[in-house]
Each structure stands twice: as structure tokens, then as C-alpha cells.
Design goal:
Elements: H1 5-21, E1 33-37, E2 45-49, E3 52-54, E4 57-62, E5 69-75, E6 79-80, E7 86-96, H2 102-105, E8 109-116, H3 129-132, E9 136-141, H4 142-148, E10 154-164, E11 167-173, E12 186-189, E13 196-205, E14 211-224, E15 232-233, E16 236-237, H5 240-244, H6 249-277, H7 280-293, E17 297-298, H8 301-307, E18 314-317, E19 321-327, E20 335-341, H9 345-358, E21 369-374, E22 380-385, H10 392-397, H11 406-426, E23 431-432, E24 441-443, E25 449-451, E26 458-459, E27 463-464, E28 482-483, H12 485-501, H13 509-521, H14 539-552, H15 563-570, H16 576-603
Parallel strand pairs: 17-21
Antiparallel strand pairs: 1-14, 2-5, 3-4, 4-14, 5-13, 6-13, 6-16, 7-10, 7-14, 8-9, 8-13, 9-12, 10-11, 14-15, 18-19, 19-20, 20-22, 21-22, 23-26, 24-25, 27-28
Helix pairs in contact: 11-12, 11-15, 12-14
């Protein structure tokens, strides 16, 4: 036998409330209980079945003819009570029956219920659980209302329920149209209520086009202490958050003490920070920063929000930031790229690092900083020239139907080497970029490369590795390991191999490099060239760039060439073999000096017979 809508509803509501039952306290509160709707909100109502919120009303059933349905709404926060003496509630509902189908309406109803928390588990124990459980269920048969207003296809009514010990009065006020109804509502009361109750509505709709809507609802209640009739006790509608975190006096004392201790610590730290902020070193750093930034525009945050149309168009992103396209001023056709950093500690460090480096680096193949903006709220933004062609990675691998020709690839390799030579040899102190890869090489309208993203760049010795992409990282790039410019040389070598092959490194740089190295050892190096070029490249240049890539990616960092030597080879000033010979001679010279120093150290620690002394 199919279960009734009410039985199905009770199972649904029990499951829902059971989820909250473990967090409910067992004490009463001497406060008024009062709430009023509209507006109805998902924040304080649990919707079950076909119920939904629409136009400041609570729709219990949707009027669908497809099948039988029910809807229910429960006020999420429970009422903490001692034995209930009285309560009053008022609500108005609307019933629409466009087909005036009174036969189906005879099986439909709207009900108001109160369900104690202690009754929830009982509803699962036996078929008679509904009869034995403590709950209140006031049912209003819809057919009676519609029969009294048979000339229309909808009615509204206001229900007022007043309950006191020993009896209950239910009053139905005149609605639209005006009707008079002899009250014969089904009242279903079991035992006295204890602990906590939930209030709500239930509606059933069996194969009819009716829709049932609650338009307004208010509820208030009061309790009288039996041992002292002169005292009036009120109950309080608690928020679930307050219930969940109800604390004993002892715990409150501990929390207050902890707050005082934390506050004291914060004050002490703040005092040190203030002292540090106004120290001579701090003032010197601020003056230096002001001098560095004097040539750059400090954008207002409102200007950036307007120019990006509230950060509407993302053109790039990374681990610490997102990049947006900005039109500034709006009346012009000038575009910029705005790098908006995240607000965590790592991102803030990346912002300050990049701002410091970019503000003092000037080179035609390094992305130019145009301005900056930082806010007390933690918003940190850098503004750069907009690069319409996107990144080298995009042009090589993602752009469809437009292959990057060899002449532009070779020119990009040369100009990128020029930018790295500037960082490694012409800046003081020298700068290690630390994350050379295709997505950090941007291209302007003429495909001129611009090296960007200096967020993890290393400015001054000692250089520490900091999260570079493993597909381009040198073998010595371990977390917190000490690096030098040769780490950039290795990444450059991987990138030029990628430019030649038209393929990305998959997992690590070593595997990618070894494939090309194997081709060279088998005297078939040109087979590494991008097949999509269809032979449309200069074989001598291709061979030269592939060999440069292999020379830059040798495991022994001391044997990697400098970017100055790379430029000479690519520009045809020296032959690759000569460069490799010079580099080998330099390495051997360094090794001989180191060996001589070791021998000299040992000779100073020998006895008269030439044996080494033990140095304590």
C-alpha cells in the first residue's frame, strides 16, 4: 500500500531535523520568541519536496499535473522551551485552482505543524510512531475553502491559532473573495511539548493543478513557570550558530583570558612593527622606493576597476596572480595589462619583489612597467603594456591556423638571449629570473618578445630556488638550493629546443633534452625540427639553435655557456665549437686552481716525513 503524503513528509522532515538534533542544548531560555515573514529567505528555512521561494512568498506546491506531490518548509532554528503553555501564530495562504477541479481538491490540504526535537528519532521506530510521537499537526482541507468560493478559481485566507493549556482556538478570517467557513479543522495533539520544537508548513497536491502559497507568517509564544504563577517566562528563537557554540562559564573565562593574552601579544608585535617602520633603515628603504617609483604612475584603484570593467576580462593567470585587460582612459584606444595579485603572504612577497625589480630594469626585450597600485586592504596591482599577440607558449601551441614561421622563431631566441644577458651581466646586482618559459615571454604586434613575470626573480646573491616550473628547471634547482645565472641558461636551453621542435616538455626537462641529445649522437639532429614547418627553415640556423640548446642544458652547470657567448654564436660572431672549446678551457683552468689550493692546504699540514697531520 502506497504511503500517504503526510507519512512521506514526516520521514523527510525527520531526516532533515535529525541532522541538527545533535547540536541542540537541553536548557530553556527566558526570552521572547517572535518572528515575522515576509521576506522569506533560504537562510532560515529548510525547503522539502516541491516547495520553493518566489516573489517574497513561500510556494509549497507548484500546480503540476504530472504526478502527486508534496511540499514543506521548516523554520531552521529550533525553539528552546520548558513545558509550553501558550503560543499564537498567524499566517495567510493562497490557493489557486485554475481548472476548478474540486474532486482532486478533496484530497489536498495545507497544514501547520510543531514538531519537538525529542520526537524525531521515534518517527523511524514503528508504523505507529506517528500516533505515539509528540507533535502538533493542524490540517486545513482545501476543498472546504474552494466550495465556499465556487464561483472563483482561487481564494486567500488568514489563519490565527491561539493555544492555551486545556484548549485551542483556530480562527479563519475573511479573505478574497469574502467567505464564511464553519471551522472543522483536524486538530492532532499528543503529549506535552518538551525541549525544542520546530515549526513549519506542509502541503499535499494529488494529481491536480492546484498551487498552495504561504503569503505571510508570524509566531509568538509564552511560558508560565508552574512553581511561580506570578513569574512570566518567555522562550527564545535561537540561531543554530548560537546553539552549536553554547559554552559553560568556565570555558567563557578561558576564552576571555586567551583573548586578553592574544591582544597583549598583538599590541607588543604592533609596537615592534611601529618601531621598525620608523627606524632609520626603514626610512632609507622608503626613500629608495620612492626614487625608484617616481617615474611610474600610481594608479587609483577606482581607475583600474573602471578600466577593467570591474575585472571582467582575464587574459592570463599564475600561481600568485591573475592578469586583466584594461582600457585606460576609457575614451581612448589604449590598452594595458593589469596584474592583480592574490592576498596571501606568498603573493604579497611576489608583488613587492616584482615591483622592485621591474622598476629598475629597462630593456627593449623586457616587459615595461607602466604603473602600480597597492591598497591598505591588501589589493596589490601592477600595470604593464598590453601584448596583443599573447604569450610565446600560446603562439607556438594553442593558436590555430597560424603557424609561427622560422624567421620569427630564430629572432625571438636571439632577442630573449639579449634580455637575459642584460639581467645577468649589465644589472647591478645581477638578476636571476628563475622562471624562464614560454608563458612568460609575451609578444607585441610585431612579434617582438618581452620577458615578463619577475615574481620569483632573484635579486642579489645568494640566489635561492623558489618554485620554477619543473619542465624548464635545471637539475640543481632543488627547494632552497643556492642558484646562479647558469640556472637561467639551462631554462633558456630548454626553451630554444621547444622553439625548434614545436613541442613542449612533458614531465621534466631532462627527458625532453635527452631525446634531442640522442638524435645528435646518431647524427640525425635535424629530425628534431618542427614537422609543421614542412622544411621551411634555414638548416644551418636550425642546427645552430638546436646545438646551442644542448650546450645550455648540460648537467654540469660549470660547462654551460654564458648568455654573452650564446649571443655571439647565434649572431654568427663565433662558431659553436669555438665557444664550447673556450668554455671547456675555462672550466679546466678553474679545476686546476682548485686542485692547487687543495694541495697547498695539505702541504701545510704535513710533518717532517711528509705525512699528513691530524688537525684537531
Amino acid at each position: 500500500m502506497a504511503s500517504s503524503p503526510r507519512s512521506t513528509f514526516l520521514l523527510h522532515i525527520s531526516l532533515t531535523l535529525l541532522l541538527h538534533s545533535q547540536t541542540l542544548p537541553k536548557t530553556a531560555f527566558s526570552q521572547n520568541l517572535f518572528f515575522r515573514f515576509p521576506p522569506f529567505s533560504n537562510k532560515n528555512l529548510v525547503l522539502i519536496g516541491s516547495s520553493s521561494l518566489r516573489d517574497d512568498s513561500l510556494c509549497l506546491t507548484n500546480g503540476s499535473l504530472s504526478s502527486s506531490s508534496f511540499g514543506a518548509a521548516i523554520f531552521l532554528n529550533p525553539v528552546a522551551i520548558i513545558p509550553l503553555v501558550s503560543f499564537s501564530t498567524s499566517f495567510s495562504f493562497l490557493v489557486r485552482n485554475p481548472n476548478q477541479d474540486l474532486t482532486s481538491s478533496s484530497r489536498n490540504a495545507i497544514a501547520f505543524f510543531l514538531l519537538p526535537n525529542s520526537s524525531i528519532p521515534a518517527l523511524f521506530q514503528s508504523p505507529d510512531a506517528v500516533k505515539n510521537a509528540s507533535f502538533l499537526f493542524l490540517e486545513f482541507p482545501v476543498s472546504r475553502y474552494l466550495k465556499a468560493a465556487a464561483s472563483v478559481n482561487h481564494i486567500t485566507a488568514r489563519i490565527s491559532i491561539h493555544y492555551k493549556e486545556g484548549g485551542m482556538a483556530v480562527r479563519v478570517s475573511a479573505g478574497e473573495p469574502r467567505i464564511t467557513i464553519k471551522e472543522e479543522s483536524h486538530i492532532f495533539i499528543s503529549k506535552n511539548f518538551v525541549e525544542h520544537i520546530y515549526a513549519g508548513f506542509f502541503s499535499s497536491n494529488q494529481n491536480s493543478s492546484e498551487s498552495h502559497v504561504i503569503q505571510s507568517w508570524s509566531l509568538s509564544s509564552s511560558i508560565f513557570h508552574r512553581n511561580n504563577p506570578q513569574s512570566t517566562w518567555r522562550i527564545k528563537l535561537q540561531s543554530t550558530k548560537a546553539l552549536k557554540y553554547s559554552l559553560s562559564n568556565t570555558l567563557l573565562i578561558l576564552i576571555r583570558a586567551s583573548i586578553l593574552a592574544i591582544s597583549a601579544a598583538v599590541i607588543i608585535v604592533a609596537c615592534f612593527n611601529v618601531k621598525e617602520q620608523f627606524s632609520p633603515d626603514a626610512r632609507k628603504r622608503r626613500r629608495e622606493r620612492q626614487l625608484l617609483l617616481k617615474d611610474f604612475r600610481k594608479f587609483k584603484y577606482s581607475e583600474i576597476v573602471t578600466g577593467t570593467r570591474n575585472f571582467n576580462e582575464i587574459i592570463g593567470f599564475g600561481g600568485t596572480s591573475k592578469v586583466y585587460k584594461m582600457n585606460f582612459p576609457l575614451s581612448s584606444s589604449t590598452f594595458y595589462a593589469v596584474k592583480r595579485f592574490n592576498t596571501d603572504k606568498k603573493s604579497r612577497k611576489s608583488y613587492h619583489n616584482e615591483l622592485e625589480i621591474m622598476s629598475r630594469v629597462r630593456h627593449e626585450n623586457i616587459l615595461e612597467l607602466k604603473g602600480w597600485c597597492d591598497m591598505d586592504t591588501g589589493e596589490n596591482l601592477l600595470v604593464f603594456d598590453y601584448m596583443p599577440q599573447g604569450s610565446l607558449h600560446y603562439v607556438l601551441h594553442s593558436r590555430k591556423n597560424q603557424l609561427l614561421p622560422w624567421t620569427q622563431r630564430y629572432a625571438i631566441a636571439i632577442k630573449l638571449a639579449t634580455a637575459l644577458k642584460h639581467l645577468h651581466e649589465e644589472c647591478s646586482p645581477h638578476i636571476v629570473h628563475g622562471d624562464i618559459k614560454g608563458s612568460n615571454i609575451l609578444l607585441d604586434d610585431e612579434y617582438e618578445p618581452k620577458l615578463g613575470d619577475f615574481g620569483i626573480s632573484l635579486n642579489g646573491a645568494p640566489y635561492k630556488a623558489a618554485g620554477a616550473s619543473k619542465q624548464y628547471s635545471a637539475p640543481e634547482c632543488k627547494p632552497k638550493s643556492v642558484l646562479d645565472v647558469k640556472a637561467d641558461v639551462y631554462s633558456y636551453g630548454v626553451l630554444v629546443l621547444e622553439i625548434c621542435r614545436g613541442r613542449m616538455p612533458k614531465d621534466t626537462a631532462e627527458g625532453f633534452v635527452s631525446e634531442v641529445s640522442e638524435m645528435e649522437s646518431e647524427d640525425r639532429l635535424l629530425e628534431a625540427a618542427d614537422e609543421r614547418l614542412g622544411g621551411g627553415f634555414n638548416p644551418e640556423e636550425m642546427m645552430k639553435l638546436l646545438k646551442v640548446g644542448l650546450a645550455c642544458t648540460v648537467v654540469d652547470r660549470e660547462r654551460r655557456p654564458s648568455m654573452a657567448w650564446v649571443l655571439k654564436v647565434l649572431n654568427g660572431e663565433v662558431e659553436l665549437e669555438e665557444m664550447q672549446k673556450r668554455e671547456a678551457e675555462m672550466v679546466e683552468s678553474v679545476e686546476r686552481r682548485e686542485e692547487a689550493a687543495v694541495v697547498s692546504g695539505l702541504s701545510g699540514n704535513t710533518d717532517s716525513k711528509g705525512k699528513a697531520k691530524v688537525v684537531q
